[in-house]
Write a structure and sequence with these properties.
The structure holds 2 protein chains of 2 kinds. In chain A, the strands form 4 sheets. An 8-stranded parallel beta barrel of chain A has the order 3-4-7-8-9-10-15-16, surrounded by 8 helices. Chain A is built from 10 helices and 16 strands. In chain A, a hairpin with a 2-residue loop joins strand 5 and strand 6 (about 65-70). The two termini of chain A are about 25 Å apart. Chain A is α/β, with parallel strands linked by helices. Chain A has one domain (about 5-300): Aldolase class I (TIM Barrel, Alpha-Beta Barrel), CATH 3.20.20.70. By secondary structure, chain B is an alpha/beta fold. Chain B has 2 domains: about 1-85, Elongation Factor Tu (Ef-tu), domain 3 (Beta Barrel); about 95-205 and about 230-275, Nucleotide-binding domain of ferredoxin-NADP reductase (FNR) module (Rossmann fold, 3-Layer(aba) Sandwich), CATH 3.40.50.80. In chain B, strand 3 and strand 4 form a beta hairpin. In chain B, helix 2 (about 105-115) packs parallel to helix 4 (about 130-140) and helix 7 runs antiparallel to helix 8. The longest helix of chain B is centred in the last third of the chain and has 18 residues, at about 200-220. The two termini of chain B are about 25 Å apart. The chains are: A alpha/beta, B alpha/beta. At the A-B interface, helix 1, strand 5 and helix 9 of A face strand 6, helix 7 and helix 8 of B. The complex binds flavin-adenine dinucleotide (FAD), flavin mononucleotide and FE2/S2 (inorganic) cluster (FES). FE2/S2 (inorganic) cluster binds near residues 22, 189 and 190 of chain A.
Chain lengths: ~300, ~280
């Protein structure tokens, strides 16, 4: 029987798929529910120091083969998020996602997530539409290195770094994470995008610039994981347009040891985890792989 | 789900309180589903379809800036729509009673065209409910009207009317759509049993907004999670809650299966679509 357990550094998961940050993970209750749906872990919504209402709507829409969002990191702030985390961590593994503008801010937020019981922290260095945050701090290798170092000094739990595909120096960013002692790289966040409504002659989103996710970004995500696999030796978690087990396998064979799902959960509901798990098991049985690890990065060989 | 920019075919005053906007949009839709509507000068808002054919319509009450903006639209103006979202009503049961309260009458009208059912139209006064009378006569097996002020039909509220009707009628399912006060007696909100939401996009959007509101309130120092706050909390995380069970007595309105869509938009005020089985 094929084994779906995976390790990301010293974090062991019973199932290889996680809920990506920002999808059905804004509250303790939703995180608990997602854990019951075949996800190996849940990454929380990215939380900052202060409550943030996010961008006005329209801030979400579907496009051909994808989703567009410019939520603008709506969240209740790290203090109020305690309650949500404490509820969620009782039900399973929660990775606490945080965003900040400086190494000190990231370090203090990560410390709080650790206190709340997060099994790891994920640094959002990749949101494409929040001024002063996300990819604005995550596309400079020097900044990335100092953020990751500061967080590593502040917490004992593993530090994962979520990177943006909106850069031509992804490998350098990956190396900066590794050099600073980062425990894993999560790739990718959304791609910078825009929608204009010709009839109105205006951008659709209130924030104008938004992030593209879903089916259409999978080839970009797979390539990002491929490049990172060649550049670093720390674990890589694949995310971007995974809808079925074959999508997940592409990421794994490009070099990911586990994966996350965002848009697919929105489109197809949380049942998608169970169907991917079943698909993976059937595939592994048919092709003679006994573990996910056996398939990790094999496309490079 | 689809998205489109549609051209308004007509804007009509449905009654004293609400307007109906009609447009052609060639997507399949079921009674009970809703869409997200946007134009440049407003926020995007959820509205139920009051007609689900190729010619679609939305019927809404003007209660704030966005519905006001929508009400100012003219024939030929454009709207950006996406959807439809939601499960729609489950019309598989044999004997169905639909109950529409106030603006909640609009989303249940497509049901009448799809299936021979009994219907109760409830409203504050004659002005709000008059337009439904002919629909009942044209499409329903039996239909009843009631008003809070007795200006048309029975002088009672929707819940009392349901009780009265059920004294001598039996149903396998009740579908109700209306304001919170109308659905609260059915103990809808107090019951747990959430199922997974199935309204991608809009759901996410609506839910996030609600979370945001809740967080705003917390940020403003609203402590605890009682009363409305508790309700808001339940709602934002479910948006669509479902309850399983069976209708035991026809004399008692017992909620056994509900599908609630809530305007997460405003946790203090709710818009509900219910399927009570
Ligand atoms: C799935 C769904 C389907 C809906 N279908 C319809 C429909 O078919 N017809 C229709 O008229 N409305 C419907 N609504 C409600 C509609 O979306 C709101 O009335 C609208 O968003 C109000 O926007 P506004 O800017 O005009 O009002 P705002 O300025 O935002 O609000 C004005 C006042 O009305 C109150 N209010 C706002 N929304 C609601 C609400 N949903 N219920 C009760 N009180 C509210 C607010 O608390 C505020 O006091 C639906 C909502 C949902 C979630
Ligand atoms: C509505 C929405 C909200 C998101 N919020 C966050 C967030 O708060 N933090 C984050 O790191 N990524 C966020 N993301 C990005 C996703 O976690 C994921 O990286 C991206 O959507 C690509 O994966 P997918 O194609 O499976 O959706 C969000 C994505 C969506 C669609
Ligand atoms: S809000 Fe999701 S990454 Fe920006």
């Amino acid at each position: 029987m094929s084994d779906l357990r995976v390790r990301i550094g010293n974090i062991e998961l019973d199932r290889p798929g996680m809920v990506a940050s920002g999808i059905m993970d804004e509250t303790g209750d939703t995180m608990v529910r997602m854990l019951g749906c075949g996800a190996g872990a849940v990454v929380s919504k990215s939380v900052g120091t202060n409550p943030n209402p996010g961008h006005r709507n329209p801030n979400f829409t579907e496009v051909a083969s994808g989703c567009i969002n410019a939520m603008g990191l709506p969240n209740p702030g790290i203090e109020a998020f305690r309650e949500e985390m404490e509820k969620a961590v009782k039900a399973g593994k929660i990775i606490g996602s945080v965003y900040g503008a400086s190494p000190q801010e990231f370090a203090s937020l990560a410390g709080r997530m650790e206190d709340y019981g997060a099994c790891a922290v994920e640094l959002n260095l990749s949101c494409p539409h929040a001024k002063g945050y996300g990819m604005e701090v995550g596309t400079d290798p020097v900044m990335v290195k100092s953020i990751v170092s500061a967080v590593k000094d502040a917490v004992k739990v593993p530090v994962w770094v979520k990177v943006t595909p909106n850069t031509h120096i992804l490998a350098d960013i990956g190396k900066a994470v590794e050099d600073a002692g980062g425990d894993a790289i999560v790739a990718i966040n959304t791609l910078k995008a825009m929608v204009i409504v010709p009839e109105f002659g205006k951008p659709l989103m209130s924030n104008k610039v938004c992030g593209l996710s879903g089916k259409c970004i999978k080839p970009i995500g797979v390539r990002a994981v491929w490049d990172l696999h060649s550049a670093v030796s720390i674990p890589i978690v694949g995310v971007g347009g995974i809808y079925d087990h074959r999508d997940a396998l592409e990421y794994i064979m490009a070099g990911a040891c586990a994966f996350q799902l965002g848009s697919a959960v929105l489109d197809n509901g949380p049942g998608v985890f169970d169907s991917i798990n079943r698909g993976l098991e059937a595939f592994m049985d048919e092709y003679g792989y006994s573990s996910i690890k056996d398939m990790e990065g094999i496309a490079h060989e | 789900m689809s998205e489109a920019v549609v051209k308004i075919k007509s804007v009509e005053q449905t009654n004293k309180y609400s307007k109906t906007i009609t447009f052609d949009w060639d997507v399949p839709a079921k009674p009970g589903q809703f869409i997200m509507v946007w134009a440049p000068d407003m926020d995007e808002i959820p509205l139920s379809l009051s007609s689900v054919d190729e010619e679609k319509s939305i019927t809404f009450k003007v209660i704030g800036k966005d519905t006001e903006c929508l009400a100012s639209k003219k024939e030929g103006d454009r709207l950006r729509v996406r959807g439809p979202y939601g499960n729609g009503y489950d019309l598989s049961a044999e004997r169905i009673l639909v109950v529409g309260g106030g603006i909640g009458i609009a989303p249940i009208t497509p049901v009448l065209k799809e299936k021979k059912v009994d219907a109760i139209f409830a409203a504050r006064d004659a002005d709000e409910v008059e337009y439904a009378g002919p629909l009942g006569i044209k499409y329903c097996r039996n239909s009843w009207i009631c008003t809070d002020d007795g200006s048309l039909g029975e002088h009672c509220n929707a819940v009392q009317m349901v009780q009265k009707v059920m004294e001598d009628h039996e149903y396998d399912m009740i579908i109700a759509c209306g304001p919170e006060v109308m659905l609260l007696p059915a103990e809808v909100l107090q019951r747990g049993g959430h199922t997974v939401p199935d309204v991608p996009g809009a759901l996410h959007e609506v839910r996030l907004r609600s979370v945001r509101r809740m967080h705003d309130r917390r940020a403003q120092g609203v402590q605890g999670r009682t009363g409305v706050h508790q309700g808001a909390n339940q709602r934002h995380e479910g948006f669509r809650h479902r309850q399983e069970g069976r209708l035991r007595s026809v004399h008692k309105l017992q909620v056994t299966k509900t599908q609630i869509s809530v305007s997460a938009h405003k946790p203090t005020a709710v818009w509900l679509h219910n399927t009570i089985k």
